[in-house]
């Protein structure tokens, strides 16, 4: 639940947070954005509406969402939909929990605070999907000279995505990150805001921008934010 209930703005409506984000992408000369956990394309469409003209590569594990993405991206020659997959610490196969509201679906089990704050996060089914790492994806989707920004919205599975990126981080091939981070664990085994911020800081990244996420009136606290990081 968000702090105020209101009719959602159209996807292509002006969004000050995304306009600022795109300004940051332009400032850092980002040419390609990895959209990991693309759901049904909201993030990519908001980037376009805010003026980003570089390439976008979207990754989505849920089959129905993936079909939607392929339809949407057909009209945008610089928007690529990768084969259906999850992204994590190592290659393999995994079962993903599909929630009633499927944008809350996660490889991790839902924790009690999430169910209390957002009952529609309950699991209704599962899907099996292949897992790849960011390191391996660079070989498929990044061209020589690209500057890459990685957005990760994987419902508590952000740390495994980072752990599968250590090779490209060490090679200085990822200019920046955007991660949806929880202030308290909303999924079992999730790394929180403090853990991930410290991990990225140790790799040379600093926080440049924060976008407020979910605030629970029931729990009366901020549950999630989006943090944007770039190399110091």
Brief rundown of the structure:
The protein is α/β, with parallel strands linked by helices. It has helices spanning 16-27, 42-49, 63-73, 112-117, 134-141, 158-163, 166-170, 193-202, and strands at residues 32-36, 55-59, 79-81, 86-87, 92-99, 123-132, 148-152, 174-182, 205-212, 215-216, 221-222, 224-231.
Task: Describe how the helices and strands are arranged.
Layout: H1 16-27, E1 32-36, H2 42-49, E2 55-59, H3 63-73, E3 79-81, E4 86-87, E5 92-99, H4 112-117, E6 123-132, H5 134-141, E7 148-152, H6 158-163, H7 166-170, E8 174-182, H8 193-202, E9 205-212, E10 215-216, E11 221-222, E12 224-231
Parallel strand pairs: 1-2, 1-7, 2-3, 4-6, 7-8
Antiparallel strand pairs: 5-6, 8-12, 9-12, 10-11
Report what the structure shows.
This protein is of the alpha/beta class and about 230 residues long. It is about 30% helix and about 30% strand. It has helices at about 15-25, 40-50, 65-75, 110-115, 135-140, 160-165, 165-170, 195-200, and strands at about 30-35, 55-60, 80, 85, 90-100, 125-130, 150, 175-180, 205-210, 215, 220, 225-230. The strands form three sheets. Strands 3-2-1-7-8-12-9 form a seven-stranded mixed sheet, sandwiched between helices. Strands 4-6-5 form a three-stranded mixed sheet. It has a two-stranded antiparallel ribbon with strand order 10-11.
Name its key features.
globular, 3-stranded mixed sheet, 7-stranded mixed sheet, alpha/beta, 232 residues
* Contiguous uncertain segments of 5+ residues: 1-7
C-alpha termini separation: 34 Å
Overall shape: it is globular
Radius of gyration: 17 Å
State the assembly state of the protein chains.
single chain
Discrete helix count: 8
How would you classify the helix and strand content by structural class? alpha/beta
Q: Which percent bin holds the helix content?
A: 25-40%
Strand content: 25-35%
């Amino acid at each position: 639940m968000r702090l105020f209930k209101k009719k959602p703005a159209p996807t292509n409506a002006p969004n000050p947070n995304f306009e600022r984000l795109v300004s940051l992408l332009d400032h850092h000369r980002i040419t390609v954005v990895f959209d990991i956990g693309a759901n049904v394309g909201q993030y990519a469409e908001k980037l376009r509406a805010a003026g980003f003209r570089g390439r976008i590569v979207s990754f989505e594990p849920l089959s129905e969402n993936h079909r939607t993405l392929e339809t949407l991206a057909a009209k945008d020659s610089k928007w690529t939909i990768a084969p259906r997959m999850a992204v994590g610490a190592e290659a393999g196969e995994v079962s993903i929990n599909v929630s009633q509201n499927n944008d809350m679906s996660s490889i991790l089990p839902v924790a009690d605070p999430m169910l209390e704050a957002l009952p529609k996060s309950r699991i209704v089914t599962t899907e099996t999907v292949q897992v790849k790492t960011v390191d391996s994806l660079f070989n498929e989707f990044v061209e020589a000279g690209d500057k890459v920004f990685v957005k990760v919205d994987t419902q508590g599975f952000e740390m495994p995505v980072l752990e599968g990126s250590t090779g490209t981080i060490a090679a200085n091939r990822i200019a920046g990150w955007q991660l949806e981070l929880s202030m308290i664990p909303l999924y079992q085994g999730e790394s929180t805001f403090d853990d991930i911020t410290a991990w990225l800081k140790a790799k040379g990244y600093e926080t440049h921008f924060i976008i407020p996420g979910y605030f629970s009136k029931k729990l009366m606290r901020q549950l999630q934010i989006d943090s944007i990081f770039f190399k110091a």
